[in-house]
Design goal:
Blueprint lengths: L7 E4 L2 H8 L6 E6 L9 H8 L7 H15 L13 H10 L7 E4 L2 H9 L7 E8 H14 L4 H8 L8 H9 L7 E4 L6 H5 L2 E6 L6 H6 L10 E7 L3 H10 L4 H4 L3 H7 L9 H5 L14
Parallel strand pairs: 1-7
Antiparallel strand pairs: 2-4, 3-6, 4-7, 5-6
Length: about 290
Amino acid sequence: MDAEDFHKVEINKWSDLEEIASDKSKKWIYRGQRESEWTFKSSLERLCNSMDINLKDAHLIEKTISSEFKRRFHQYSSYLPNYNDNLEWLSIMRHHMAPTRLLDWNYSIFIALYFALERECNKDHSTVWCLNSDWAANESKNYFLGHCKEKKDVENICDKPSYMQNSGSFTNLFLREPFIDTAFPISPRNITQRITVQKGLFLCPGNPQHKFDENIEKMNGFKDKNNIFRLLISKKKRKEYLSRLFNINITHATLFPGLDGFAYSLSVYHQSFEKGNIRNSQFRNDDSVWDLI
């Protein structure tokens, strides 16, 4: 799968983003990526690639890492999920940067834009991908039913809201063979603070033995612009758009609450970076910040 296979829209002004965000004709979800030619890879897939592990064995790595995480999690947290709620476990693992098959998406185009711009791209454009979540959910449902997955499990996951989903059904559909090539938008029953503030959800591939892209390619209509398209954001707009996001309180500090998130946000954008503010800085002739009071 190549990014150039997909319909693209060049964003020339902020109002272009606002217009796309206001489109309620479909249930769009968004993913920001630093480089415009990137398609999709989960952290589990990247791990296998970096360690020269055949993707056919990715599900074994997934089991091993999940087992280790479950066994040791109590050492770091007073909260313990239900042992069998594997979607919540994978969600927490993703939260803490453990490799999983889950890929982060957002309901907010502006939060996705922040992730696209957070680090400077190497080429001319960053990208915000737009995906019709209803299309992905319906295609996944059809594929599960067409490949001998239990109808009850499919209905529990595909037809019920997240807070009613059956954890055993998620396990049966996604974690037990036969694996089905598809990509399903999903959220755990119990969502973390980070998912809440980021307006986040996951796209979960049905088959970890195949590339994430290959899971999407199996879905009918994956090249249709009504289902997936991408926005191209010029690197020349990075500072302007980060400033606009800063002004609507979308920063690393707000998206990753805590000291680490705040500290990192200072390396991405601060209003003091603007030339006028540098020129008129109160600290130009004031060293009091270094002095004890």
